[in-house]
Amino acid sequence: MSVEQLLADLAQTYGYRLRLDAKAVSGAVGAWFVRDETDKCFVLKHHNAEAFPNVLLVPARAERLRLAGYPVPRYETPFELRDTCVLLQNVVGGTASLDLGPGLLQDLILLNDLQLGMGDDRARFPHISAPISPQ
């Protein structure tokens, strides 16, 4: 499905009107910059419908990191459209991290829990390449 069709479906199904701004070229593969009616800019990312349960977790995970002081953007509640799900990320300044993906994000949350004394001290962090030693 084209990004134009996604935007039309979002408008028709949810009343969420967005206009296409540009293709995101740094760090966001398959992502597009879009703007809402107030000119607020978002990064639109879309995934197969099968990914929807995992995509639903992204806003809460990012919010936990943000509240802990990590500089991560806010996300809107994901949308489900036929065979696609759509995630809107608020655009923030700075540069894109090319190595932060879902696996590393989950590892960072587990590590943060451990630092707060809420995690399992036997947890493994397969996406963190630096050695981690308990102290």
Characterise the protein shown here:
The chain is an alpha+beta fold. It has four helices and five strands. It has a five-stranded antiparallel sheet, covered by helices on one side. Helix 3 crosses helix 4. The protein starts with a helix and ends in a 20-residue tail after the last helix. The mean pLDDT is 81.
Could you spell the SSE succession in H and E letters? HEEEHHEEH
Low-confidence stretches: none
Number of distinct beta strands:
5
The 3D shape can be described as elongated
For the sheet with most strands, the description reads: 5 strands, antiparallel
Decide which structural class fits the backbone: alpha+beta
First-last Cα distance: 50 Å
Estimated helix fraction: 25-40%
Estimate the strand proportion: 15-25%
Mean pLDDT, to the nearest integer, reads 81
Number of helices: 4
- Rg calculated over all Cα atoms: 17 Å
What order do the strands of the largest sheet run in, or round the barrel if closed?
A: 1-2-3-5-4
List keywords for this structure.
five-stranded antiparallel beta sheet; elongated; 135 residues; alpha+beta
Summarize the structure.
This protein has 135 residues and is α+β, with helices and mostly antiparallel strands. The chain is built from four helices and five strands; from the N terminus they run αβββααββα. The mean pLDDT is 81.
Sequence-ordered SSE layout with sheet pairings:
Blueprint: H1 3-14, E1 19-23, E2 31-35, E3 41-48, H2 52-55, H3 58-67, E4 79-81, E5 84-90, H4 102-115
Antiparallel strand pairs: 1-2, 2-3, 3-5, 4-5
